Amino acid sequence: MNYYKNLKDTKKTDDWLRTNGINIKSFTKTKPKTLQAQQAATQLLDMYSATLDKPTKRILKNFRRCYSDKNKRDRITDGDCYRVLNLAARVKRGEYKDNRRKRQAA
C-alpha cells in the first residue's frame, strides 16, 4: 500500500514539475535560482504571451532553450536568472496595477 502511494505521489510531483517547465532528470543537479527562473519563464510565456513584447519573448525563449540543453544549463549565470525573475515581477506587478485600476473604476 505504501509503495503504491509513493509511486502515485512521485507521478504527481513529476507532472507538476513538467507543467512548470522543469526537467525532472536534472532537478537535483540544478541551482535553485535557475529552477525559479525556468518556472517564471514558462509561466510568463504561457499566461502573458499576448502582453509581452518581442524582445522580452526572445529573452524568455532563449533562457528556456539554454535550460533545455545540458551543456548550456551549467553556464546559466545568476545574472541571467535574475533578469528573468525581474521580468516576471515587472509583468505581474503591471497586471496587479491594471486589475486594481479596473476595480476602483467600477
| Number of β-strand runs | 0
Query: Topology as H/E string?
Result: HHHHH
Helical proportion? over 70%
Radius of gyration: 17 Å
| Main sheet specs | none
Measured by DSSP, the beta-strand proportion falls in under 5%
Count of DSSP helices? Answer: 5
Structural class label: mainly alpha
Distance between the termini: 54 Å
Overall morphology: flat
Structure notes:
The chain is mostly helical. It contains five helices and no strands. It has helices at residues 2-19, 32-47, 54-68, 70-73, 78-105. The longest helix has 28 residues, at 78-105. 12% of the residues are buried. The mean pLDDT is 91.
Summed up, what is this model?
The protein has 106 residues and is mostly helical. The chain has helices at residues 2-19, 32-47, 54-68, 70-73, 78-105.
What order do the helices and strands come in, and which of them pair?
Elements: H1 2-19, H2 32-47, H3 54-68, H4 70-73, H5 78-105
Helix pairs in contact: 2-3, 2-5, 3-5
Attribute tags:
106 residues; mainly alpha; 76% helix
